[in-house]
Amino acid sequence: MNFYPGDEENRYRDRMRELADTYGWPEMKALREEVEGLHIERYSMTFQRQLAEHGLIGLTWPKPYGQAARIDQQFLMAEELECQGFPGYGLTTNQRGGGMLLRSGSAEQIAEHLPHVVDASWTYCQGLSEPGAGSDLLALKTRAVRDGDHYVVNGAKLWTSSAHVSTWCSLLVRTDPEQIRHRGLSLLLVDLQSPGVTIQPVWVMGGWRVNAVFYDDVRVPAANLVGEEHQGWSVITGNLDEERAMSFGGTETRLLCARLIHRLSEKADELSESDLQTLGRFIMDLEADRLLYLRVGLSAARGEDTSGTGPMSKVHGSELAQRFIEWAAELLGHQALYPDSEDVLAADLEQQLRVATVLTVIGGTSEVQRNIIANRHLNLPRSN
Ligand SMILES: Cc1cc2nc3c(=O)[nH]c(=O)nc-3n(C[C@H](O)[C@H](O)[C@H](O)COP(=O)(O)OP(=O)(O)OC[C@H]3O[C@@H](n4cnc5c(N)ncnc54)[C@H](O)[C@@H]3O)c2cc1C
User: Are residues 147 and 100 in the same domain?
Assistant: First the structure.
């Protein structure tokens, strides 16, 4: 297998580079300030709109919505985006909303939503977890009761990332209380401006905001049901598989690693042999992580089941990111203890030390991912 991309593979990466070239220091600074103002890691509306103008949203989607690009082309574009330090989370979460509709939505839903995803005028978040239902998502209690041509939704969701800047929420609700576990759940697209929706901030250690979202008698048109009623679990498992196949920290960590190498090259003779060996091992592990992530992406594009391999990529990338950031911060010493350090790399490492703690929690904890690998990939029996 040849891992070195040619012109065709690089087509959209080159477009991303063209967009990146329009950014100077003042524009990058403005983006950084926007991200800090929205309080969502790697999320900028301005950048979303620029991606839209350059035709870089929904690359793998069929025409007329997307560009019918291959997954490796999309991978290389997204990698370029992250490696150049642009905020890529908005792209991920909004494309996940559109991707869900392409897999499970009606023709009307696809025609209504996808143009707004690719022009970045609508944004999407995912409301699954609840106060008593995180790892055990199937314990969720939010209810939707059919009332004529609407559903009436009541309940509370916790940890909903980017809800405060989203137009729509993909909301997993129980529509049949007689059924248990994965039976009787449905997926509704909820307009977050609807009466009865209250969004409250929840601050996490990295300084970013997630949300508690309360739904009180929220009326949702029945036309916003995605997939069949009571079959919401099969809709959302596609999203979860996609989420677990994402890069969780690997790409950003490679960028941090490149910055660290640049810094260390100025004083390479001060480094101990043991530090150099550790750095060498991290470089190898980061490259292995990149290839694992690419393998899962290519496998998904071929229509193969990635429910077992996606979690491997997630566990590997997130735990590697945590190990690297901890080591790098220690190497830079006390400067990496201060959020306001004048040394920008040290300040970023200090923040990443806090941010990276959640990498092994979001999208399902490492323990839960390991259970999935055991069940789905190794076919081991479930524990009781
Ligand atoms: C920053 C952040 C952003 C998030 N964004 C979203 C979002 O946008 N949308 C959304 O719906 N959710 C989101 N989440 C929620 C996330 O998916 C859950 O936090 C995660 O699934 C864990 O659930 P929990 O927090 O309820 O922990 P719990 O499920 O209570 O787990 C507590 C501990 O028990 C362990 N544990 C639980 N069950 C098992 C088991 N069977 N075997 C072994 N160990 C187990 C866990 O590994 C963990 O260590 C986000 C979370 C965070 C922190």
Answer: no
Residue 330 lies in a domain: yes
Identify whether residues 373 and 252 lie together within a single domain. yes
Cβ pair 189, 226 in contact under 8 A: yes
| Lining residues, ligand 1, CB within 6 Å | 125-129, 134-135, 159-161, 204, 210, 358, 361-365, 367-368, 371
User: For residues 232 and 185, is the Cβ–Cβ distance under 8 A?
Assistant: yes
CB 130 within 8 A of CB 141: yes
Ligand 1 centroid to residue 7 C-alpha, Å: 41
**pLDDT, tens digit only, all 384 positions of the chain:** 566 778 888 899 999 999 999 999 999 999 999 999 999 988 999 999 999 999 999 999 999 999 999 888 888 898 899 888 899 989 999 999 999 999 999 999 999 999 999 999 999 999 999 999 999 999 999 999 999 999 999 999 999 999 999 999 999 999 999 998 889 999 999 999 999 999 999 999 888 999 999 999 999 999 999 999 999 999 999 888 877 777 778 888 998 999 999 999 888 788 899 999 999 999 999 999 999 988 888 887 777 888 889 999 999 999 999 999 999 999 999 889 888 888 889 999 998 999 999 999 998 999 999 999 999 889 998 876
Which atom of ligand 1 is least distant from the CA of 358?
53
Alpha carbon nearest to ligand 1 atom 32, residue:
135
Q: Which residues are catalytically annotated? A: 243
Domain total in the chain: 3
